[in-house]
Amino acid sequence: MKAVQVGERGTAKVSDVAEPKLREPRDAIVKVTAAAICGADLFPLHGMTPGFDPRTVLGHEFAGVITDIGDAVDLLEVGQRVVSSSMTSDGTCAHCRMGRPAQCASRALFGYSGVYPRLDGGQAEYVRIPMADRCLLRLPSTFTDEQGLFLADILPTGYAAVQRSGASLTDTIVVLGCGPVGLMALLCVSGFGGAIAVDAVEARRELAAAFGAEAVSPAEAEELVLARTGGLGADVVIEAAGTPGALDAALQLARGRGTVSVVGAHFEPDYKLNAGLMFEHELTLRFSIGDPLADRERLMQMVLARGLAPERVITHRLPLAEAAEAYHRFHSRAATKVVLLP
Questions:
Q1: Distance from CA of residue 306 to its chain's centroid?
Q2: DSSP for 42-80?
Q3: Distance CA 72, CA 240 (A)
Q4: pTM for the full model?
Q5: Is 162:188 a contact under the CB 8 Å cutoff?
Q6: Predicted confidence band at 169 (pLDDT cuts at 50, 70, 90)?
Q7: Crossing angle for the helix pair 145-152 and 154-163, nearest 10 degrees?
Q8: Is the model's pLDDT at 274 over the cut of 80?
Q9: How far apart are CA 45 and CA 8, in angstroms?
Q10: Residue 23 three-state SS
Q11: CA distance 336 to 334
Q12: What are phi and psi of 50, to 5 degrees?
């Protein structure tokens, strides 16, 4: 079958690989109908994932149809349309039992290896799903495959950024970084009124404005936040860019006793946190990676009931065979969200 793997430095390639088979009684096989590229997919391409096996099939955002199930799969049937959670969890470890499946002791991330146990992802024609009863969520007929993709990772991540920040309806909320995750956070605060969105890319600011935010460039952010808050600073700053500079800016924009909620992916072991600023302003700094297993059904109902339409952030749809070009457009920010169609 065709599948996407790491190519030459900084690139992806489409390879011929063996079609996955059932290995364990709790496995399922899914025929992929749509897969998306996530910012975390770029790290292995650029050598930023220690121990990554280049044979790993990429992709942790995918939807499809079940074609085979193991003998111990109880909640699913062949032929059902499903979306998979981006990460696995066993349901039995202490974290899982206490409602923290994203911290599962044996977790794996689809499309990753090295930092997690190798687990081939869904940017392929078929994908094997371990612990299928936990990973897979059945999609109702009114839910499109493209909407389903957002339940795999980035909509729960954007939701976690808001929910774990403790934001209230009267708060001034700033979202730094209007890539797909930042846009999902804006979607989740659309009922709060008047969030401020910050991004250097004009096309992303336009999408943020369409979600009801006041969108500005990084150079304009501080002036707007101070004007909006009478010089106090933002109640909540959501850092969705995943860069040290964005985290620095988030800490500067927050008011005294404000909260900086981080969902941008950070792997810097030597980041110099301004502890003096944190202490002086009594700031709360919280990191989240999102929890699809805990939140995806709630978010599905929000999409259906409130018409959130997360698929509005999709800017490009390309055949799986053109994955190399899709990755190039995504990495260069010529595309905001790309869907690959096997």
A1: 21
A2: HHHHTT-STT--TTSPP-SEEEEEEEEE-TT--S--TT-
A3: 39
A4: 0.94
A5: yes
A6: confident
A7: 50
A8: yes
A9: 8
A10: coil
A11: 7
A12: -55, 135
Question: Quick check: 191 pLDDT over 70?
Answer: no
Residue 95 reports pLDDT greater than 80? yes
pLDDT at 307: 78
d(CA 213, CA 183): 10
pLDDT of residue 42: 95
Strand partners, 69: 28
What is the torsion angle, in degrees rounded to the nearest 10, for the CA atoms of residue 222, residue 224, residue 229 and residue 234?
-50
Looking up tokens 């066993």 gives 90
**Cα separation, 335 vs 287, whole angstroms:** 26
Q: What is the pLDDT of residue 269?
A: 85
- Tokens standing for residue 81: 């349309």
Q: Are strands 234-239 and 214-216 parallel, antiparallel or unpaired?
A: unpaired
pLDDT single digits (tens) 24-66: 999 999 999 999 999 999 999 999 899 999 999 999 999 999 9
Q: Which residues pair with 259 in a beta bridge?
A: 236, 284
Q: What is the DSSP letter of 19?
A: P
Long-range residue pairs from 193-198, CB within 8 A, at least 24 positions apart, any chain: 193/169, 196/172, 196/221, 196/224, 196/225, 196/228, 196/234, 198/174, 198/249
- In Å, how far from its chain's centre is CA 46? 19
21's tokens: 């088979």
| C-alpha to C-alpha distance for 115 and 331, rounded to whole angstroms | 22
Which pLDDT belongs to residue 265? 87
Q: How far apart are CA 170 and CA 229, in angstroms?
A: 11
Sign of the dihedral through C-alpha 209, 83, 154, 22: negative
SS3 content of the chain, % helix, strand, coil (to 5): 35, 25, 45
| Burial class for 285, CB neighbours closer than 10 Å (0-12, 13-18, 19+) | middle
DSSP characters over 303-323: HHHH---GGGG--EEEEGGGH
